[in-house]
Design a protein that fits this description.
Length: about 160
């Protein structure tokens, strides 16, 4: 008697069993989701503009991490779930697209380059992690904090 029947919609087990309340809750969820997308889009526009201005001011070349979107999607889905990972990926893709568009518009040089944090920039051997997020290469002796390893990839010249 008190068990949940799989044929009964989920909202009937909540105090939303009245159709009016269920519709109101649905509208509220859609409104909140729309607001989240708008906030992420606005932040992407703001950050792309800010980065482009800095690149212009310092006459610098911008290096963009060439992300493997499928592996990033799997990582985000494992960590946050399907809905939030979709939200984060859409924001990241929008940011990269806006950034590239603005860099092209202002004539700022840019390059897509894969920036690893678990691969040695010197010998491309796998890095091992020690305490404090310090990465060490057992092959060549390279040592750096994990968050700084991608910067070494930026500084190494890419093969012709």
């Amino acid at each position: 008697m008190g068990q949940y029947s799989p044929k009964v919609p989920a909202y009937k087990s909540l105090p939303l069993f009245k159709l009016k309340n269920a519709k109101r809750a649905g509208r509220l969820v859609r409104r909140l989701r729309s607001r989240a997308y708008r906030l992420i889009r606005a932040e992407a526009v703001f950050l792309a503009r800010k980065l482009t201005k800095k690149a212009l001011r310092y006459r610098a070349m911008v290096v963009i991490d060439d992300v493997d979107w499928e592996s990033l999607k799997e990582l985000l889905m494992r960590r946050y779930g399907k809905k939030i990972s979709k939200l984060l990926l859409s924001g990241l893709k929008r940011f990269v697209k806006l950034l590239v568009t603005q860099l092209q518009w202002y004539g700022v040089p840019y390059e897509f380059k894969r920036l690893y944090s678990r691969k040695c920039p010197n010998c491309k051997h796998k890095l091992t992690q020690q305490k404090g997020r310090v990465m060490i290469c057992t092959n060549c002796g390279f040592k750096a904090p994990r968050d700084m390893v991608p910067m070494y990839w930026v500084l190494t010249p890419s093969p012709p």
